[in-house]
Input
Amino acid sequence: MQRNGRKPVVAIDGPAGAGKSTVARQVSKDLGYIYIDTGAMYRAITLKALRQGISMEDEQALTKLARETDVKISHVDHTQIICMDGEDVTAEIRSPKVSRNVSLVAKVPGVRLEMVRLQRELAKAGGVIMDGRDIGSYVLPDADCKIFLTASAAERARRRAGDLTTAGYEVNMAQLEQEIAMRDQIDSTREMAPLVQTEDAILIDSSDMSFDEVVEKIKQCIERHPVQQT
Output
């Protein structure tokens, strides 16, 4: 629903592997909104850190890296393109190595401050669906509609395995489940802006739902939450 000439700002949060990006991308396409995958921004910083051999424990170096890195999001035919210092890294940031390390980078306060500044700028005009871990609680606390999308750990591991196999990576399910559990722990206990379901967020457990069912559920939630008066 649109009011005062502005479309709603939608925040979708949830744990690793819950399907936030895939669902948010489809909802954005259906509604004509701009989709912003904040996790991809942290993945770009993680990729650069790995390339440069920076320790995931060196918060000062990671913060400096985030400040000096040009991360841009663009859209071509409803497909999000992530560029890092002018290089298209859309595919490379989804590698297992980046996935294993991104939560370590994302928990660094200096990195988060820099990324959050960019994310808030992107959401100003409205008509945006943004997903991540702390969108409704920290990045966009005044979002018009907040969704907390989750699924069981086993189902999230199964979905992630399917994505990796499709992308040509070999999958070790036991290791994948451990990595998801570790990311949940890091994301939920980090000092700055941890993963949390806010009181005003709508909980959607997609464990036993089809992709289309989740998409329709979120579209219904957005329709029921009009733009807030400013």
